[in-house]
Amino acid sequence: MDFFSVLGFDANTEWVLTGSLLLGFASGTIGSFVLLRKQSLISDAMAHATLPGVCIMYILFQVKSIPLFLIGAALTGLLATQAIQLIIHRSRIKTDAAIGIVISVFFGFGIVLLTYIQQHFGGSKAGLDTFIFGQAASLVKSDVQVITIGSLILTMIAALFFKEFKTVVFDPAFAKGIGLPVRLLDSLLFSMVLLVVVIGIQMVGVVLIAALLITPPLAARFWTEQLGVMAFLGGSFGAVSGISGAILSTTIDHLPTGPMMVLSASFIFFLSFLFGSKKGMLPRMVKLL
Amino acid sequence: MDAITVSGMTVVYDKQPALENVSFSIPEGSLTGVIGPNGAGKSTLIKAALQLIPVRSGTVEVFDQPYKNQKQLIGYVPQRSEVDWDFPTNALDIVLMGRYRQIGWFKRANNKDIKWARACLEKVGMEGFAKRQISQLSGGQQQRVFLARALAQDASIYFMDEPFAGVDAATEKAIIQLMKNWKRQGKTVLVVHHDLSTVEDYFDHVLLLNKRPVDCGPTQSVFTIDNLEKTYGGSIAFLQKTTPAGGR
């Protein structure tokens, strides 16, 4: 923690910064697979759809408990993805419109529940009012511990199943042919996204957590043609976005954390888009000359 | 002995039957072409046999055992267009995927696997492209990378979905060479094929399919004008000049 104390942060802030760094790394890494599996939008819908689930759990049990929130988030997140599939298969509505409908319905319902909680249970005490845009300063040590452990586990799973995820993402039919449990691995990836959303909900907020899954790997793609490098670089970009967002929102009053993280990630994306050595605009123009 | 026996296979897409009660068997060591018009269910048949898509009914046996016990014997070469070639990886990595079953969970490819994969690339004339980004390969080269991946699997039975579609002459030659080598080694190969003019040159067995199997057996006896008319419907006159032996 010496690095942070040099910058003059107190112990609690150090914890928060460590958490934001690890959360950013985990989401950037997992996001690389989600992006290449072309499920970024679905994961955004799922993130929004976790809000009502978390609120329902709070209304039922009136405690802030990550395991309970995870169950609630998984239920409504899953319901949302199922609803999207159902709409696509059973109507003439296309994927983008189906996702649009489902996002608004679930998120709208979540907001209604959140307002109800704030009026009846004093949700601000539980930190539920920060669930929309996230507020790093509202985190206490136990919150950060959950984020830290969760992020480390997620990163480890991504590393452990790297080869299998890679095969499933590139060529699911072939993966099935060589005996990989494709559906199980898909569900695992989906569960990992859910876990990122739930542990990140208080720091980043449901609205923008998906951006932390999408933007850092997208930026990384401009610098590399190797999935392993992309996942690591995506993680690193996520970590940098996470920590700079957390620093900005804790040092400047009233700045929400999620949007600051996403702005940092977008800045990295913009630089990568221009200067990325593999797919960036400028290097490509130079090659054409 | 029959390498593959499909019985009563029915597949339904959006309430439209794609395959109706398809039964056939493929002898071990044969090179079989699956022939039929567009929409006849040729690719569907391969995917259904490999349980990649849901089937309404039907069973698949491999060497008289249920398919699910024999998966490791089968190598699959999907259509090139079914994957995103912009994926961040190189040719060697794709070929290594063919070894993943042998490598097993949680482990990484070792030097032996890499050597094996390189040898497979060499067999399809792609040794110079191991570290090339897959997005920078031509269509034919991408097809050859898929072939090398299938080779790396070292399977006993190969299913190939339109391997000749849109490839250059060098790749076509490499595919034919590979199929002949497999046949020499006693392996069984099933190929979804489009070009009627080359059927007699490439395959010793033919499965004629148009949602139902029209006929299945050795090319000389099955690949006949009569059967082709049954498979493709009446408008088959133009085919006569493309089937040099006449097949009567």
From TrEMBL, chain A:
<dbReference type="GO" id="GO:0071281">
    <property type="term" value="P:cellular response to iron ion"/>
</dbReference>
<dbReference type="InterPro" id="IPR037294">
    <property type="entry name" value="ABC_BtuC-like"/>
</dbReference>
<keyword id="KW-0472">Membrane</keyword>
<feature type="transmembrane region" description="Helical">
    <location>
        <begin position="66"/>
        <end position="88"/>
    </location>
</feature>
<keyword id="KW-1133">Transmembrane helix</keyword>
<feature type="transmembrane region" description="Helical">
    <location>
        <begin position="97"/>
        <end position="117"/>
    </location>
</feature>
<dbReference type="InterPro" id="IPR001626">
    <property type="entry name" value="ABC_TroCD"/>
</dbReference>
<keyword id="KW-1003">Cell membrane</keyword>
<keyword id="KW-0812">Transmembrane</keyword>
<feature type="transmembrane region" description="Helical">
    <location>
        <begin position="227"/>
        <end position="248"/>
    </location>
</feature>
<feature type="transmembrane region" description="Helical">
    <location>
        <begin position="15"/>
        <end position="36"/>
    </location>
</feature>
<dbReference type="GO" id="GO:0043190">
    <property type="term" value="C:ATP-binding cassette (ABC) transporter complex"/>
</dbReference>
<dbReference type="Pfam" id="PF00950">
    <property type="entry name" value="ABC-3"/>
</dbReference>
<protein>
    <recommendedName>
        <fullName>Manganese transport system membrane protein MntC</fullName>
    </recommendedName>
</protein>
<feature type="transmembrane region" description="Helical">
    <location>
        <begin position="260"/>
        <end position="277"/>
    </location>
</feature>
<keyword id="KW-0813">Transport</keyword>
<dbReference type="GO" id="GO:0010043">
    <property type="term" value="P:response to zinc ion"/>
</dbReference>
<comment type="function">
    <text>This protein is probably a component of a manganese permease, a binding protein-dependent, ATP-driven transport system.</text>
</comment>
<feature type="transmembrane region" description="Helical">
    <location>
        <begin position="188"/>
        <end position="215"/>
    </location>
</feature>
<dbReference type="GO" id="GO:0055085">
    <property type="term" value="P:transmembrane transport"/>
</dbReference>
<comment type="similarity">
    <text>Belongs to the ABC-3 integral membrane protein family.</text>
</comment>
TrEMBL record, chain B:
<comment type="similarity">
    <text>Belongs to the ABC transporter superfamily.</text>
</comment>
<keyword id="KW-0813">Transport</keyword>
<dbReference type="InterPro" id="IPR003439">
    <property type="entry name" value="ABC_transporter-like_ATP-bd"/>
</dbReference>
<keyword id="KW-0067">ATP-binding</keyword>
<dbReference type="InterPro" id="IPR017871">
    <property type="entry name" value="ABC_transporter-like_CS"/>
</dbReference>
<protein>
    <submittedName>
        <fullName>Manganese/zinc/iron transport system ATP-binding protein</fullName>
    </submittedName>
</protein>
<dbReference type="InterPro" id="IPR050153">
    <property type="entry name" value="Metal_Ion_Import_ABC"/>
</dbReference>
<dbReference type="GO" id="GO:0005524">
    <property type="term" value="F:ATP binding"/>
</dbReference>
<dbReference type="Pfam" id="PF00005">
    <property type="entry name" value="ABC_tran"/>
</dbReference>
<feature type="domain" description="ABC transporter">
    <location>
        <begin position="4"/>
        <end position="236"/>
    </location>
</feature>
<keyword id="KW-0547">Nucleotide-binding</keyword>
<dbReference type="InterPro" id="IPR003593">
    <property type="entry name" value="AAA+_ATPase"/>
</dbReference>
<dbReference type="InterPro" id="IPR027417">
    <property type="entry name" value="P-loop_NTPase"/>
</dbReference>
<dbReference type="GO" id="GO:0016887">
    <property type="term" value="F:ATP hydrolysis activity"/>
</dbReference>
